[in-house]
Amino acid sequence: MSMVRYKRGELPPMTEQRKAELRALAERPDSEIDYSDIPPLDEKFWQNAVPNLFYRPTKTAKTLRIDSDVLAWFMQTGKGYQSRINAILRDAMLRSMREQKV
Hints:
Blueprint: H1 16-27, H2 43-46, H3 68-75, H4 81-101
């Protein structure tokens, strides 16, 4: 079998034969799927799992009321103070979520 490469937007048109194959696959019940070559996702599997290193949550612009002295304290640390505020809030959120799980 040789590898076929396509550039974005250059995919060949979907043939009727391929459409029929995909339709037949979609109509098969899940019970016919062979999972024998896939290991189970038990607790041992998740022991060494790490969060996606490339995950970047979306940012939302929102008006937030902060005490003036707190904002001044953050701003005196220089550029990036908004990111530092976000990091502190994220840490508090994650600690709260961990405490709720226990």
